[in-house]
Design goal:
Elements: E1 6-9, E2 16-22, E3 32-35, H1 38-44, H2 48-56, E4 64-68, H3 73-80, H4 84-101, E5 109-114, H5 116-127, E6 132-138, H6 142-148, E7 158-164, E8 172-174, E9 179-181, H7 185-198, E10 202-208, H8 214-219, H9 221-228, E11 238-243
Parallel strand pairs: 3-4, 3-5, 5-6, 6-7, 7-10, 10-11
Antiparallel strand pairs: 1-2, 2-4, 8-9
Helix pairs in contact: 3-5, 4-5, 6-7
């Protein structure tokens, strides 16, 4: 059952966001799994039954789950395009808010996002190294980052970067702001996989069959989270895998 949303307003008053919290065990320190685009993960993807089963069966550790709303298309484009103020809000206000109410550890957590929020999730790991040790970026909008071609700091995060084999469209204009995408989603994700690995990250790059859609993102949650949260040694390389 999806919990009731709680409202969190930033200290500056710039952000008011719904946040859904599913606390983990109170008798032990445990990871936080922070989901951006709460509306997509909770409503469209119905991810809670999958996460519950993975934790119950021991395929992933017990975690606190927190989901942050994107509110609107306008807010989503503004916040998730590597906006430094929104990144600060997540890292310095949302995460401490969750920690004050749960037994979540300070570092080594997991962040998840899709499309634009996949880009935002990766950006947060670069800006706050150590806070998140793993990032799930499903069809992340890395075409935007590739078009900026920024210098990136060292990063030892473990990334699962996915994209659909049908995401080949180029020269796309995205409403409501007219955001222009020059290269394909595939090119952007492949660029990110190579660049992140160069900066010290460990990357699982996987191409699934399909397009920019909820169904394949939901289907890959189990293998993605299992790999990201595995206790196996990390070898700081790019791994390729296809999921049908």
């Amino acid at each position: 059952m999806t919990p009731a949303p709680q409202v969190m307003t930033s200290a500056s008053g710039d952000y008011t966001r719904n946040l859904w919290l599913v606390p983990g065990p109170q008798d032990s320190v445990h990871p936080l799994c922070l989901f951006l685009d709460a509306e997509h993960y909770l409503r469209d993807m119905d991810c809670l039954p999958i996460l519950s089963k993975l934790m119950t069966t021991g395929q992933i550790p017990a975690m606190t789950l927190a989901f942050v709303a994107h509110v609107s298309s306008e807010d989503r484009q503004r916040d998730y395009l590597c906006d430094p103020r929104y990144t600060e809000y997540l890292a310095e206000e949302v995460v401490p808010w969750v920690r004050a109410r749960t037994n979540v550890r300070e570092t080594g957590n997991l962040i998840c996002g899709l499309s634009l929020s996949g880009l935002a999730a990766a950006h947060l790991t670069f800006q706050y190294p150590g806070l998140f040790a793993q990032a799930l970026c499903q069809s992340g909008s890395f075409w935007w980052l590739a078009q900026q071609d920024p210098d990136l700091p060292l990063n030892h995060t473990r990334f699962w970067l996915s994209v659909g084999d049908q995401e080949t469209e180029t020269e796309v204009t995205h409403p409501p702001s007219g955001l222009y995408q020059e290269i394909s989603q595939i090119e952007g994700v492949e660029w990110a996989a190579a660049r992140f690995q160069d900066q010290g990250a460990t990357v699982m790059y996987q191409q699934y069959k399909g397009g920019h859609a909820i169904a394949p993102w939901r289907a890959e949650l189990t293998p993605a989270l299992t790999w990201l949260l595995s206790s196996e040694p990390v070898d700081n390389g790019v791994h390729s895998q296809e999921i049908s």
